[in-house]
Design goal:
The protein is α/β, with parallel strands linked by helices and about 375 residues long. It is built from twelve helices and 16 strands. It starts with a helix and ends with a strand.
Amino acid sequence: MTDAWMHDALNLARQGAGRTSPNPAVGAVLVKQGEIVGRGYHTYAQVKHAEILALDEAGDRARGADLYVTLEPCAHHGRTAPCADAVVEAGVKRVVAAMQDPNPLVSGQGFQRLRDAGVAVEIATQFAEEAAQLNEAFIHSMRTGLPLVTLKAALTLDGKIAAPEDNTGWITSERARAHVQQIRHASDAILTGIGTVLADDCLLTDRSGLERSRPLLRIVADSTLRVALNSRIVTSAQHDLVILTTSAASEERRRALEYRGVRILVHDGPGGRTDLRKLLEYLNAEHYRSLMIESGSKLNWAALEAGIVDKIFFYYAPKILGGLRSLPVAGGAGRLRRADAIQFGRVTLHPIPPDEFAVEAYIEK
């Protein structure tokens, strides 16, 4: 039954998607004499960690029980007291965890505290990959000091994202676009370029309708602050909009936007553009674990060329635009030799019935 109980814990952890950042999603199940006596999963608003919620539900039945948890119990004081101490005090006899916590404040220390107190500890390595996927952005952030960056695009089969003239309508289906909203919901921040804002007057909101730990941070790369003060993205700003610009932008324009509740970041980059790497450093300092890019051809290439993209999620529709004027997913100068092409690995194909598909892949750095 060990596998079944860890599967239960993983399914509980999934209920925290979009609701735990900047913390990881964690699920916990307490089992005694073959019966589940406590369950819990973490959400940021609920404050208590998954293990504590499971212990609360179990009460006295936690003594002598086995704890199945998707991540190593914490051993440091954060918003709550250490979970490892609570597990010991409750009299749990064995802890089975899917993986060690990559957070340097915890990593291995939670297990050691449990062992020192006489609690048996086991690592269910067969679940490590599944558990890591649940917290991909958190793990990446802990290991690199930067948020996980995903470049998303909707494409025709010939790699086009826009026609040269009329772009009304959608490239992909409603079903594919609903899947995009799931990725938005799981993201902490979203970035687009001023060209997309001017063309679409977009909002860039999370339209999943699901609870979040904090609002989706909307970011616009706008080197000269061309964004309209009456655009939907500006008028809807509630301290959830950042505009990344350069020192070439008008000070008067900057003040007008700040008056409307927009945060302005001035980061000069090469060629008069904004510095995307400094944006990542800002996001990390503010504890944003993930960034999704939904933009046009120019910014897509700028992000790829700057080396900030970690993975792609490309949605393909069974269509061809053709022509030399239709925009490719990544424009700019591009690479001039095949040998210099940006390489990808760990490629996964996601079918989207009846006749679309998505490609998820990781850039080989």
